[in-house]
What we know:
Radius of gyration: 19 Å
Structural class: alpha+beta
Helix content: 40-55%
Order of helices and strands: HEEEHHHH
Amino acid sequence: MRYASQTTVSSDRSRAEIEALLQRYGADQFCYGWTNGSAVIGFRMCSRCVRFTLPMPDKTDERFTRTPGGRRTRSGSDALRAWEQEGRQRWRALKIVILAKLEAVEAGISTFEREFLSAILLPDGQTVGQWMAPALETVYKTGRILDLPELPA
């Protein structure tokens, strides 16, 4: 069973809880936005800008438009409720991930950089994870450690 799969907490409330959580742990900036298919939160903490992109489910996915057994088509309102439930679950999951990372840092179990490294923004707007992913793929394919790609000026 997935975490918070039956939550009734709205996506808006989860986002607000994430914002309050970040403030409580020392973030001095917060932003939120969305594009077609994903939501984005960003914040600044420990002199680093961090971005989490939360992929949102596709409303036309059969998980929402068809009954769990897949035999029947759901009504429009039932499909919308199932889709909204998935969105609520994802926001709750993001909140617990961020909370766990912040608490690990606060307790001295980890460091901010270790917990948030892949989501830290670089000067060109991509995250460290996006920048390193191609090199990591090559390392695993070849077994050789490569020089990291140059950052754009």
